[in-house]
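Appendix B. Extra example for self-study. Work through it before the problem class; the solution is given directly after the inputs so you can check yourself.
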Amino acid sequence: MIDTTKKLTPKERLAIPPQEMPAQDPIVRRRNMEEVALGYTEEQAHLEALRCLQCKNAPCIASCPVRIDIPGFIAQIAEGNYKESLSILRESNLFPAICGRVCPQEVQCQSTCTVGRSLKDIDKAVSIGRLERFAADWERLHGELEVPSVKPPTGKRVAIIGSGPAGLAAAADLAKEGHEVTIFEAFHKPGGVMIYGIPEFRLPKAIVQREIEILGRMGVKIITNFLVGRTRSLKDLLEKDGFDAIFIGSGAGLPKFMGIPGENLVGVFSANEYLTRANLMKAYEKGKADTPIYPAKRVAVLGGGNVAMDAARMAVRLGAEEVFVIYRRTEKEMPARVEEVAHAKEEGIIFRFLENAKRILGDEKSRVIGIECLSYQLGEPDASGRRRPVEIPGSEHVIEVDSVIVAIGNESHPLLLQTNPEIAVDKHGHIITDETGKTSMDRVYAGGDIVLGSATVILAMGQGRRAAASIHAFLMGNG
Amino acid sequence: MHRIVSKKQLSEEVFRITVEAPFIAEARKPGQFVIVQRNSDYAERIPLTIADADPSRGTITLIFQTVGKSTHKLAELEEGDYIQNILGPLGRPTHIEKFGRVVCVGGGIGAAPMYPIAQGMKQAGNYLIVILGARTKELIIMEEEMRALADELIVVTDDGSYGRKALVTEPLKELCQASPRPDCVVAIGPPIMMKFCAETTRPFGIKTIVSLNTIMIDGTGMCGGCRVTVGGETKFVCVDGPEFDGHLVDFNNMMLRLSAYKEIEQKAHEECHLEMQLKEMKSTKGKGNP
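Solution. Structure tokens for the complete assembly:
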């Protein structure tokens, strides 16, 4: 047994076993909406924090999109100084309770962790995300919400379009600098994908609301039910309403479909629609919510990303007996977070790798009754470096399902571009920005999925912060 | 929050409300719609077309029919009550120009969104013919307004209780056969009516615009629930529409998609009516026992 009260050698630290995240029993959680991962106990957090080698070169910081002082906040957890730990986190990231839950740490900070490398297993890297979550939850459960200090008013006004991760991150940084920030949100609740998309069982909405509350306390105004481009134009915001600059973080747009026969049958949904019904509209609270959700017993989910996992796991919770995730490559190539895939498997989701939908079949009332798939094998690597899936001729087979959820990503959002042709976009319709987030329209900046295409919460936040820095420089006359 | 400044019941199932929504009143154009949600907690988001607006008072007028739970609940609100969320104006505005001779066909509640379009067409200098149709006399709405606006007004009812006993497609066909022929037809109403209007004008090659009201959640181009097949391609009513070339819309698929939640809706609707009956029973009982 290691004495953790004295200073440990790196060898001793490496010998501490990685702490497993406690989780709800899969049999139980399949039928409830409560959070799956339960969070570290204090003891676990302490042990996990001690595993950090406090590397001087800190490769983890370089692989964090918002450059959190990771060894710094972990050292404070090891000392039991949770409040200080959270202060360090909040310097670079105002939303640690969110990021600790939804960041794909295994391809970011944890991918370069020296502990994981030394143990030759990336899964044994220090669980940075879980520790981040621990510090944030500790404050939520024990302490008062700490509101970052705000500089004296500059008299400059910034409009933020969209209250998702990019917009919130930009708003936070700009408010801290003393600018007057107004966020315009089209939905009736702020939070973007963190409210409508990511399910309650992975990211409880009360946590998102609380983190957004911090912005309110910093003086940020949030106006819901306001669609910039329709309710009011970008030009009006700049010319009539007196905003000095605008940040567009309007997010991903129209869902992509496969372009296969049968996609407009009754019972085929985009993951956006399915998850929005379930999350934002609370369709899972049957009897309370007015928004219906399609009753389905056998569901096919097309795609292999986090959204596909969310949709599949939501379908199970809404009463589906069998849920299939159909993905044309293998598990190794799946873009979803490892933890989500593991959780999905525990919950009984059936993965059909190396298969892809060819057409969706319907009955005489055009309701889905099955999906015809083709089998694939992996061929030569393609441009992305992943081995290209090649269809096996004659391998058609039918899976009986009564609903199909398409989760293969989004096109860019068409609306702002429809109404503002002066903003330059690339061939995919994503806004083109320079390295500071500036668009081709004067005083207008952009970031997040509207620039990147489908990305992650943390990458969007990173873009929001980057644009906020250049907006700040511009407003102060240094741009 | 949007205060209801006036409310009027136009028929047993049709209501007109005027609500405060200053930005929408200023920005809206003919053909556009709003998403209405009574409250943020559990209420549904439903698309409703804008029948009129008064930018100086900052109000918009919505006309809706009670077809399900959400519209029933909306109809229960009175003057002075608030609707928590209204988003808009949504969708592309109607393309209005001087076509020459324009026929506007409003079926049932479809007469409401037709009104601003007819206004626009008239203002653009078109010769305006309006056909209003409904199942029966009391479901004819906007008659006075349309009469004041149109160069010719034709009213038809399915049962002949008012105006001519005919479907809207009958006078439409006669207009297509007459000389001069219409240069443009706009049809708004139940999907089946729009489908047959499009079929009526097709042989004559007359441009026919229809306005689609599909299932929607966000109304801003995110959920894809409103998708329809137009000319063999998938289009999104909220951002590509709501108006499309009626000759290209796959109405059969659209009608099937509209029926996705029919059973659930039907049940909720019946429950609403039961509740209404119960309330009525209680209130009459109350009157009888002072």
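Self-check: Residues 262-288 of chain B form the longest helix (27 residues). If your reasoning did not lead you there, revisit section 3.
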